[in-house]
Amino acid sequence: MLNDVKHIFKLDPAKEISDEELEELAESKTDLIVVGGTDNVTEDNVLDLLARVRRYSVPLALELSNTHSVIGGFDHYFIPVVFNTTNMKYHNGLLVEALNEYHEIIDYDEVSILPYIILNEDCKAFKKAECYLPDNETLTSLVTMIDQLYKSEYIYIECSGKLISVEQLKSISELVNNSHLIYGGGIKTREEFKERKPYAETLVVGNSIYSDFKHALKTTNEVE
Amino acid sequence: MLNDVKHIFKLDPAKEISDEELEELAESKTDLIVVGGTDNVTEDNVLDLLARVRRYSVPLALELSNTHSVIGGFDHYFIPVVFNTTNMKYHNGLLVEALNEYHEIIDYDEVSILPYIILNEDCKAFKKAECYLPDNETLTSLVTMIDQLYKSEYIYIECSGKLISVEQLKSISELVNNSHLIYGGGIKTREEFKERKPYAETLVVGNSIYSDFKHALKTTNEVE
Predict the structure, then answer these.
(1) Mutation for B interface: A81, A88, A112, A153, most B CBs within 10 A
(2) Which residues, including other chains, have CB under 8 Å from residue A26's CB and lie 6 or more apart?
(3) Which of A96, A108, A113 shows the shortest C-beta gap to B138?
(4) Interface confidence (ipTM) of the complex
């Protein structure tokens, strides 16, 4: 699904965005729009974004936050599985519960898990998923385990709201051999996107859509 | 590693076996000998089995029980990752700690993780790994998650000491599309092996080596 996806705009269904801004995002050079958030994600606000983005030809995926906002009609579904959590519930636990309810109607070709490592202690997802902050050695082990032992299709480094240094992203990328590396968190400008572009297959621009729309939009100028 | 492995003898380093019996196992039609146990696995007793089995040409693998009994010289290394545990420690936790210590010297081509679902509440591994017994629906979800979402190379159904019914193994095998299904637990006779053979790529004969050697040995007559 993400093979040629360099740039993602991630829209939070709990946040407001105007039709004009949505049109600019959808008609930009972004490769994919992903709908997903941490809090207050409901059937209604997901459905609203689905309907509004579907007017455009840009591919559209849903990242599942909970089981009561799962809606058909997206091109693909991503399920986050947090690897640096202390609680099985936020690793596979909620996923197993969701499968109990939905596994008979799921088309698994349209669904991928995203192994998450969340590195920003101050973000909501970190606290909600009862994460621990890995030291450098443990981070290396987590990445290596996902990449070399699970041979996961994807690995997602999430710094939600906080920009990772180019050096740290580079050192993570050097550990990855099998998995497609996705980075998200704190990218606000074209320059920040450009600097990190060599070190992740996919970069996600999210929060800055809501805090500094013009600069967020300009990150797509780095897409070939 | 397990592509053409129909039959495994699993030797517990904490249990005694005579040279004569070891020779009969090693020169039987078994495809692989795996060294692995739950309690009292030490560097000494693993090394002892390694040296004694290495006289024969049968392939030999180590299933890691802890970090202080990891020894070079095996053809392959398996790392159990328990999926029906309530505690991250027994899922990825111990593995991450082990990687902190060893990841720089590991040849990942020689190492595979084995996603375990342990279904016998009375066995030592179940208690030690703080497992829960999944109901049928949750078992289906666990198997489906490992097979369709993790797209794991292997899935290991472990009933240690308790024989699974042919019907249950059949219904599990029908859920599996991508992963190589391994079953272990309670197989004591050739007939029990034969009945389950169509429903798992690999069947493991373990405890019965120590309780009823002659019948355990005869299970290899089912290997083509």
Answers:
(1) A88
(2) A33, A53, A55, A56, A58
(3) A96
(4) 0.95
